Amino acid sequence: MSNVDQTFLLSLYERMVLIREFEDTVKFLFLEGTMPGTIHQCQGQEATAVGVCAALRADDWITSTFRGHGHALAKGLTPQEMLDELFGAETGCCKGRGGSMHMGNMEKGMVPGIAIVAGGIPLAAGMGLAFKMRAEKKVVACFFGDGAVAEGAFHEGINMAAIWGLPAIFVCENNLYGASTRVDLVMKNSHISDRAASYGFRGETVDGNDVLAVYEATRRAAEECRSGKGPVLLELLTYRRTGHSRRDPCHYQPRDEREAWAQRDPIDRCAEQLKLSSEERERIQARIQSQLNEAVERARQAPHPPATDLGDYVFAAPAPTAAASAPPKGAAPKRLGIAEALREGITEEMAADPAVFCIGEDIGVPGGWGGAFTVTLNLEKQFSDRMINTPIAELGFFGLATGAAMMGLKPIADVQYGDFLFLASDQIINNAAKMRYMSGGTASVPLVMRAPVGATGRGSQHAQNMERYFTGVPGLKVVAPSNAYDAKGLLKAALRDGNPVLMFEHKLLYGSKGARAEGGAIDASSVIPSEDYIVPLDQAAVRRKGQKVTILAWLLMVHLSLQVADEVDAEVIDVRSLSPIDWDTIGTSVRKTGRAVIVEEGPVTGGVGAEIAAGIAERWPDVRIARVASPNVPVPFTPVLENAYRPDSERIRRAARELLQWAPSN
Amino acid sequence: MKMPDLATNDGVELGIQRWLVEVGQAIKRGQPLLEVETDKAVQEVESIATGVLKTIHVPAGEKVGVGKVIATIKAG
User: Fold this and answer.
1) Is the CB of A311 inside 8 Å of chain B's CB atoms?
2) pLDDT given for residue B48 in this prediction
3) SS (H, E, C) A220-274
């Protein structure tokens, strides 16, 4: 212990006291009733945050949880920016948009806390992936609790970190309780560090209330990570001296256990190591308390954002026009199918921008299929280091993609079947879509996602139209191309947009040939120009001009609608942008025709068509609306029933004809 | 010092079981001052400030609503 620099140890002591005083101050502000919301505090656990962060460099990163005040102070966020945030002020670290559970500061290397238990673990792995892909010597320390190790996100995240040797230190703060449930009730082997071995990497259990032990263990782990020998799992044994959240009197913690841990208080132990007198301790505490009190008074007066700013920070503003990828020399326009056009678009964007990469299952296996629908066929030949083939772990790798995007890479993550998006939906909806907003616009997620949809004889779990579950998610853009020109152009626009964009593709429209051809496929090919082009993300397209009735459709249904359009003189609109809906284009049409048939593959109740119908009815109440959609049944396998499930051109024709009986009122 | 909100249903009054300190006593922030009975259990309520307890406004045995002043502390 005599080797330890006393100045350094004193700095750790003071940082822990700062955390303890901050948390106690906040606790009483809260009980006073002047602070809004809720708090999850970490009194008793100060040594974990301080010891870990002391071993990190300034350009290393941390991810955190809903119990993140200690992590934030240890990483270097100021009490002022945190108190401002807790009071909901514009000057808070997340401009008041995040709150207690989302403390963070991208400039100080702290991603806003992820409040979904274990949700930050795949993110952290993705950040490590970004550091590795860019050959940066950075490390990410990922904090989570004992409760998190039961979540799938833990397993998927550390597994991928292990197979790719990512520079991530997974820090489990084992305080014996997941909320109010003791750790030995939720796992048979409660030595959490043992789990690392089963994934093939090193785990270590550390006295989490010994700040120097934590510091040393983290220092070792960081060195391993920087030299490519990561990841590492550190289990820090500690104890929470406060409630799980506000108003929790901790009656589930036995009294003798509480008292035993109080004897091992990290701050007391550090004071002993420093041989501080009680006067010195009081002096330090008083100084810190007084600084905090000043900060509290300033925070009470800090300005709140005006209600008119509610819509700020949902999306990143469009970047200045990205460098266009150079067209191949002497290339003539050519007709391509959707799969080929996407492949070409991905190739061009990857060639032009080293930040673009692909991540998914079976996407770049030499001798493989190029994904389930051939879109990425042979791309690994040209981009061997940027086609990341993942285990079957959709939640995990969508989370990794989100984390990598937050570090400035531009991932294209895909699922083999849209139905699998459900597995990834926590990462997409709770993390990717919300991160920009809840960070007060300081974090960005330039993440492109792709998913094949549609019924194709494979049974109900490989057949759903998933658009409905992701449209209307604030912070997420959703597009659905019906042809190859749009597919390539939308993909490029998405990669340049800087926001989370989810592109739905239809299995029957890919135009794949040979072994991966689909029975019942429809030709959706287009002439693709040789020069660079984009298709704007937020616009619908008129596919056929008409006078009598507007047919609104997307993906496969566009093609079926066009089959009957002549007979009924329909204006066929390819909705194409499902979030946001292009009301301008739709409005121009329905005001002219007075009749709208909304065609959707997928159950009629609560589909995207319901949103379109409501939107038309609100804006142009004289328009007569009909929906053609699937009945409310899961997708059947047997072809007779599947064909009855899928809207066909006959049903579209019938609906249009019925509307034609109605004269539009003026 | 007001009665804090202790995981109760709205509008429920909290019963003061007993005061753990006396008027005139020096107290520290965080020190338990009184025991309160909620609809779930008996809980301790801690002092929000360090100083001297000047006045007890609501004696033991009475009920009081959340947010009502229960004590005055001379801070310092």
Assistant:
1) no
2) 84
3) HHHHHHHCCCCCEEEEEECCCCCCCCCCCCCCCCCHHHHHHHHCCCHHHHHHHHH
Lookup result for tokens 């109080």: A262
ipTM metric: 0.80
b/e sequence B26-62, b meaning 16+ C-beta within 10 Å: ebebeeebbbbebeeeebebbbbbbeebeebebeeee
- For residues A482 and A489, what is the distance between their CA atoms, to the nearest angstrom? 12
Q: How confident is the model at residue A136 (pLDDT cuts 50, 70, 90)?
A: very high
- Partner-chain contact A28 B7, CB within 8 Å: no
Q: Tell me if chain B has a CB within 8 Å of the CB of A24.
A: yes
Contact A398, A427 (CB under 8 A): yes
**Residues of chain B contacting A24 with CB distance shorter than 8 Å:** 29-30
Paired strand residues for A358: A387, A412
Residue of B29, B33, B44, B70 to mutate, testing the A interface (most A Cβ within 10 Å of its Cβ): B29
Terminal alpha carbon distance of chain A:
88
Round to whole Å and give the CA distance between A23 and A29.
10
With an 8 Å Cβ cutoff, are A31 and B5 in contact?
A: yes
A248 close contact with B: CB closer than 8 A: yes
Report CB contact under 8 Å: A33, B7: no
Helix (H, G, I), strand (E, B) or coil at A30: helix
Q: How many helices (H) and strands (E) does chain B have?
A: 0, 7
Residues contacting A611, CB < 8 A, separation 6+: A471, A472, A581
Predicted confidence band of residue A635 (pLDDT cuts 50, 70, 90): very high
Here the tokens at position A454 are: 């549609």
Q: B46 to chain A, minimum CA–CA distance in Å?
A: 9
Residue of B30, B41, B46 with shortest CB distance to A251: B41
Q: Residues B53-75: pLDDT tens digits?
A: 999 999 999 988 888 899 999 98
Residue A1 has pLDDT above 50, yes or no: no
CB contact under 8 A, B7 and A247: yes
Residue A465 buriedness (CB in 10 A; 0-12 / 13-18 / 19+)? buried
Q: How far is B7 from chain A (nearest CA, A)?
A: 6
Residue-wise pLDDT for A287-334, tens only, equals 999 999 999 999 999 999 999 999 999 999 976 655 556 666 667 889
Q: Is A107 exposed, middle or buried (0-12, 13-18, 19+ CB in 10 A)?
A: exposed
Q: Which residue of A has its CA nearest to B6?
A: A247
A:B CB pairs within 8 Å: 26
- Write down the mean pLDDT value for chain A: 95
Interhelix angle A46-54/A211-226, nearest 10 degrees = 40
DSSP letters along A363-399, please?
Answer: SS-TTS-SSTTSTTTTHHHH-TTSEEEPPS-HHHHHH
Say what the pLDDT of residue A664 is: 55
Contact B41 A24 (CB under 8 A): no
Q: In the prediction, which pLDDT does A322 show?
A: 57
**Which residue of chain A comes nearest to B69, CA vs CA?**
A32
End-to-end CA, chain B: 15
pTM of the model: 0.95
Active site residue ranges of A: 394, 462
Assess whether pLDDT exceeds 70 at residue A602. yes
